[in-house]
Every structure is written in structure tokens, then in C-alpha cells.
Amino acid sequence: MPTMADVARSAGVSVATVSHVLNDTRPVLPHTRQAVLDAIDRLGYTPNTLARSLVTSRTRSIGLAVSAISNPYFTEILQGVEARALEHGYSLLIADPHDDPAHERKVVQLLHERRVDGMIVAPSANPRELVAYLGRHQVPAVFLDRLVDTPADGAPRHDQICAENAEPTARLVTHLAELGHRRIALVAGLPGFSTTRERITGYRHGLAASGLPYDERLVAHGDSESPGAERATAALLSLTAPPTALVTANNAMTIGALRALGDRGLSVPEDIALCCFDDFAWADLFSPRLTAIAQPSREIGARAVRLLLDRLASPDRPARTVRLPCVFVHRGSCGCPEEPGSARRPEPPAPS
Question: Are 97 and 103 spatial neighbours (Cβ–Cβ below 8 Å)?
């Protein structure tokens, strides 16, 4: 079996240089790096991951804890995380916290006990125990999609990344208002999520910008799930003065809302207009196609890995919060003609 010394001889470099290429511990000139990689491929060299972890105290693994992995949004985030992690020689250990604070704490502990180098976590609505565990054990971590409140001293403790939420939601509301709607309802997510708070804020900003009053009866929580959204939509439709337009705050809740509308024989957009936060691969297969806010999900995943690797390289650097812009995808469910080419999902920005 070839050794690291064999790779070094074949590439014409030192063993230390081979180590730097394998462990990404020091910059190596591109042509030298390629020579090492070519020698590894030529010789069929396989690094001894266990031995390397004992020497470096690193396992080259990342723990990923996200709920609802079957959700297309988180599936695309996972693809972004995996691609960027593999690019840097890291493997993934994946767990589903089920958006339950107690289970979340257990999942994170299990990942930590498996000696992952760091974690990427989509926190629950009550992440107090999660944050305490990560801080107590000084686990490098990045929060994605849902932000954790900044401590009273104003210094974030963990790197975080998410999409913009307020402005894109406001755009959906103002678009519906421009079409003449005056009773625009929101099916909001689970209370406690930062995404829920920010999308409600955006909804209110959109109403204010359109000169419309805020009516708390037009906001119903679907708890970020399809069944909850079905119940919430049914409640909104039962109001004495029901809404003429509906904004759903994630893709799972869009499905629940459509079920509730279908149960009542209501057509979109003839009977009620619909816009949704979250685009997904089959949003343009509905009839009419769904007007939506598309999040850069793959880029969120890729950037989360970059933030974590930066943290591993510089543990004392100030924590960062990164927000990425969304794209308004104009289709037909809002009640106006589709723009040419709008039926197709926008290509996500290249991860950076």
C-alpha cells in the first residue's frame, strides 16, 4: 500500500507539502498542489483518516442538524453543504432534531461525541439549551436559516447565515395590493422562529407601504407545516370578511393552504390570489403556476460551510451574520399575466 512518502517522491515534493495538501493546513502553490493530487491518483494512495485525526485532533467531519430533511428547501441546503464540504475534504454526519428543543440538545450532543470538527445547525424555536451546550463545550458552530437572538451585550456568539425575509415578504404584499387587494392574509410559520418574526414584519411593512391597515385577524399561524397551514387557511376563510389574497410563509404551508382552498372549491387566482415564500422545483407545475420568493438555498448551505471553515481556522475571529438576497419569481397565481420565462425557476447564484 503506497505511503505519504511514496506520494512525496512521485510528486517531487516533501512529505510536509503532501500533508499540507491533504489537511489544508497551509497554502500550497496551485501547480504543486496539482502535482500532489496527480501522484495520489496515480499511486492510488488513501489517507489513514483515523491516524490523521489522532495527530491533528481533527476528524475532517461536519455535523449537520436540520429538521424536515424531506422538505425541498432543506434538501437543497443539504446539497450545498455537501458539495462545499466534499470540496474541502470533509464528510457529513446528518441528524434531524425534529424542531424539538429537547431532541435538538440530544442530537447535538451525539454529534459532538462523534468528534465532528464543527456543526451547522438550523435551530429550533427555543434553542436555549442548544446555545448553552455549544458554548459550554466550545463547539464551533454555524446557525443557518433561523437566527438566534444576539445576547444583551450585543456581541453574537456564533456565525449565522440566512436569506433576507422581511423585504421579500413585503414585496409579495405590495404586489397583491397593486392588483387591487385590500384584505391580504398571511399564513405565518411557527412562533419563535426568526423567519416567522421577520416575515410577519415584512407583511406589516408591505401593508403600511400600500396604505393598508394591519388586522391581526388576517394573520394565522400554520406552524411551518402543511397540516397546520390547512387549518390556518380554513380559519381565515371562515372570517365574516375573508381575505381576497393569501401569502404563505413557506413551501410546506403553501401545500396546506392549497388543500384548504381545494376543499372549499375555491380557484386560484379567480376566487383568491396566492403568493408564497419559498420556490421549489415543482412550483411551476401547479395550475396556475405559483408566484413565489425563491431563496438561494444551495448558496446558504455552501456559505455555511465556508463560515465554519473560517471559524475552525481562526477560532477567535468576531462572529458574523450573513444575509443573502432572494428572487421574486412572477408567475400566475397572483392573478396577473405571467412574464415571459417566469415559469422556470431562477438559476441559483454560484456559491462563493
Answer: yes
Question: Tens-digit pLDDT profile for the chain (352 aa)?
Answer: 788 888 899 999 998 898 888 776 778 898 898 998 898 888 877 765 544 544 445 678 999 999 866 677 888 999 999 999 999 989 999 999 988 999 999 999 999 988 899 999 999 999 999 999 998 999 999 999 999 986 666 666 799 999 999 999 999 999 999 999 999 999 999 999 999 999 999 999 999 999 999 999 999 999 999 999 999 999 999 999 999 999 999 999 999 999 999 999 999 999 999 999 999 776 667 778 899 999 999 999 999 999 999 999 999 999 999 999 999 999 999 998 876 655 555 554 444 4
Q: Are 233 and 222 in contact (CB under 8 A)?
A: yes
Q: Which residues, including other chains, have CB under 8 Å from residue 287's CB and lie 6 or more apart?
A: none
C-alpha separations of 67 from 79, 146, 322 in Å: 15, 12, 21
How do strand 245-248 and strand 219-221 relate by DSSP bridges?
Answer: unpaired
- Strand-pair partners of 141: 119
User: CA nearest 332: which of 245, 237, 268?
Assistant: 268
293 beta partners: 277, 328
Q: Is 350:302 a contact under the CB 8 Å cutoff?
A: no
Residues 6+ apart with CB under 8 A from 252: 68, 71, 224, 225, 226, 229
Residue type at position 37: L
Judge contact between 280 and 252, C-beta under 8 A.
Answer: no
What is the pTM (predicted TM-score) of this model? Answer: 0.81
